[in-house]
Amino acid sequence: MKILAIMGSSRKNSNTDKFLELFVKKFKLQDEDLEKYTLRDLNYDGCTSCYGCGRVPKCVVKDDLTEIYSKIEEADLIIVSTPIYFNSVSSLTKQFIDRTQVYWSRKFILKLRPIKEKYGIALINGGAFNQENQFLGSELVFDHFFKATSCKKNMFVEVSNTDRFPINENNDEFVSFLDSIKLDFNVSNVYRFEGGINEN
Ligand SMILES: Cc1cc2nc3c(=O)[nH]c(=O)nc-3n(C[C@H](O)[C@H](O)[C@H](O)COP(=O)(O)O)c2cc1C
Questions:
Q1: What is the CATH number of the domain that holds 145?
Q2: Is residue 200 part of a domain?
């Protein structure tokens, strides 16, 4: 199985990175053909809205994201891990996602057949305690991303309170939460973990 894993935090080895790492380990995905990209290590811009992708089925901007398009197209599974920033995904993640507009154009402007169907996983963590709509902004962004990239089936894994209870292998509650997740590529699912005791 070909897997593309995207780490969308500005910090390495922090909640978002650990979330991805522990998720991958839990399901032994490292034994598959997995490629991980850490967005903050890449030199790229957001979409410039040039609509070059409305003329040819590719992104005409050349930068460090250029090589990722073939990985997106070939992948059987795409995992994106992001922190919540201002109720949405991080700007690194959003800039990456905006660049997949190429797949929207492919479908709706060029009327080409969509890319290979695949499974999508969004790992989202927020530092604040669990609250209504905490994940809504990110869910809407990922919903559109999954549609564009042909992730018809997908999974959202959402964790709150990571500023108080960081994600790591010593966080027993988080580890048990991960243990409760069933990875079934035939169904879409949402898993949410409040991440410790709310104090407010
Ligand atoms: C600019 C910025 C905005 C943030 N906005 C939110 C927010 O709207 N909701 C929330 O729950 N946490 C918010 N946080 C907290 C982060 O989601 C939290 O610290 C997360 O675990 C950071 O991931 P990292 O450890 O991988 O950097 C924000 C943090 C930053 C730096």
A1: 3.40.50.360
A2: no
Q: Which structural domain, as residue segments, surrounds residue 149?
A: 2-193
Residue 45: predicted pLDDT: 95
CA of 90 to the centre of ligand 1 (A): 8
Q: What is the DSSP letter of 115?
A: P
pLDDT at 200 over 50: no
As for how many domains the chain has, the answer is 1
Task: Return the SS3 of 106.
Answer: helix
pLDDT digits (tens, 9 = 90+) for 116-168: 999 999 999 999 999 999 999 999 999 999 999 999 999 999 999 999 999 99
Give me ligand 1 centre to Cα 93, in Å.
13
Tens digits of per-residue pLDDT, 33-48? 999 999 999 999 999 9
Residue 198 resides in a domain: no
CB 84 within 8 A of CB 160: no
Residue 20 lies in a domain: yes
Specify whether the CB–CB gap between 7 and 38 falls below 8 A.
yes
- Pocket around ligand 1 at a 6 A CB cut-off: 9, 11, 14-16, 83-87, 125-128, 134, 162-163
Q: What is the pLDDT of residue 197?
A: 55
The two structure tokens encoding residue 95? 């800039």
Residue 164 Cα to ligand 1 middle (Å): 12
For residues 3 and 35, the answer to whether their CB atoms sit within 8 Å is yes
Mean pLDDT score of the chain, rounded to an integer?
96
Would residue 199 count as lying in a domain?
no
